[in-house]
Write a structure and sequence with these properties.
Shape: flat
Strand content: 15-25%
Radius of gyration: 24 Å
Largest sheet: 6 strands, mixed
CATH topology of one domain: Beta Polymerase, domain 2
Helix content: 40-55%
Number of helices: 7
Distance between the termini: 76 Å
CATH class of one domain: Alpha Beta
Order of helices and strands: EHHEHHEHEEEHH
Length: 251
């Protein structure tokens, strides 16, 4: 919903307007182009927020949890297919209200702990609303797929006011992304894959998860040792300074 102080004026697009809400989707008309503009704008907004966060963590905390960021907009045909699967009329209103993943952003992290840390930080974003979440890391899909999903409402500033637009955010580790990308290429629109091959993909997902856990264990150990060394060095430095003070007063 677009908002401003007086709730007046001509807006870029009126979802509340029945001519738009109830009008059937035509991927070649201007209304569809306007809708795509909204989703692209929301992606720019959230991507910028994440990039600023990434720079902040690197500069102020020497912490780089994000390996890379990708974004995508669903193809028009895929949007229509999703509405059909939901048994919904192919209208702009249903497209805006019922399809949550038209705009998508993916954060690929080094370790599982980075995923959960980023979720905590995003929860504290003052202007971004979290509508839904699914933790497929703790409870993977039957296919073996693992990731953390958030459905966000991202505020986009237009000349006439602010509009909240849905964006799906996926957070996963490098290992999870490797498996998901290959699994998608093998199974997407491919009916020739056998049940045995599908079972093997599930097995490989479990293997990759074990690798993720093992690497996380190594990372935690190294981080613990690093922190312990910092404490030792700090204590030694403090003792050294105290010794210097005693010598100074003795003289």
């Amino acid at each position: 919903m677009i908002q401003n102080e007086n709730n007046e004026g001509e807006y870029l697009i009126r979802i509340e307007n029945s001519l738009v809400r109830d009008e059937f989707i035509d991927i070649n008309d201007q209304n569809f182009e306007k809708m795509m503009f909204l989703y692209n704008s929301a992606l720019k907004e959230i991507k910028t927020k994440i990039e600023i966060l990434q720079d902040e963590l690197k500069i102020f905390s020497d912490y780089e949890p994000i390996e890379y960021i990708t974004t995508r907009i669903k193809k028009p045909e895929t949007i229509l297919e999703k509405l059909k699967r939901k048994n919904l009329a192919l209208t702009y209103g249903n497209m805006f209200q019922e399809v949550n993943d038209i705009a998508g952003i993916r954060l690929v992290c080094n370790f599982k702990k980075d995923v959960y840390k980023l979720v905590e930080i995003i929860e504290d974003f003052q202007d971004v609303r979290i509508l839904n979440r699914k933790d497929y890391m703790k409870k993977p899909k039957k296919s073996g797929y693992m990731s953390y999903h958030l459905i966000l409402e991202v505020p986009v500033n237009f000349s006439s006011g602010i509009m909240y637009v849905k964006v799906e955010m996926q957070l996963r580790t490098l290992a999870m992304d490797f498996w998901a990308s290959l699994e998608h290429k093998l199974k997407y629109k491919n009916s020739n894959i056998t049940k045995a091959e599908s079972n093997n993909l599930i097995k490989y997902a479990k293997v990759i998860n074990n690798i993720d856990e093992s690497i996380l264990t190594i990372s935690n150990r190294l981080e613990k040792e690093k922190n312990e060394n910092i404490l030792i060095e700090t204590a030694e430095s403090r003792n050294e300074n105290q010794t210097k003070k005693k010598i100074f007063f003795k003289l």
